[in-house]
Design a protein that fits this description.
119 residues, single chain, mainly beta, seven-stranded mixed beta sheet, globular
């Protein structure tokens, strides 16, 4: 069965950086589009970024504005999200997800999330 385990979250000052990881198993990772989402308290579940199975295509939510980079290592079955120039409004639980595409809120399965707190 699909397993997604996020890690790399933490507390960081505004302007700082973090790299989130998502270890995937139980499905054909290298053939599957993946996404990152986030959810802050009392806010909507928000699509952050998506990447195609081979990593050749990526897309980002408008709010990212070049600050985040999604990538993947198919040899390691791992998805990444590099966060730069973090703002307090980036504080949220971040989730990785299996998806059929690279854009928008749809997904097939998601992990438990990793918390990012920016102060």
């Amino acid at each position: 069965h699909v397993q997604l385990v996020e890690s790399g979250g933490g507390s960081v000052q505004a302007g700082g950086s973090l790299r989130l990881s998502c270890a995937a198993s139980g499905f054909g990772f290298g053939r599957t589009a993946m996404k990152w989402f986030r959810q802050a308290p009392e806010k909507e579940f928000e699509w952050v970024a998506g990447i195609s199975g081979r990593g050749t295509d990526t897309n980002y939510g408008d709010f990212v504005k070049g600050r985040f980079t999604i990538s993947r290592d198919n040899a390691k079955n791992t998805l990444y999200l590099q966060l730069h120039s973090l703002k307090t409004e980036d504080t949220a639980m971040y989730f990785c997800a299996v998806s059929g595409d690279i854009t928008g809120r749809g997904y097939i399965a998601r992990g438990q999330g990793t918390q990012v707190t920016v102060s």
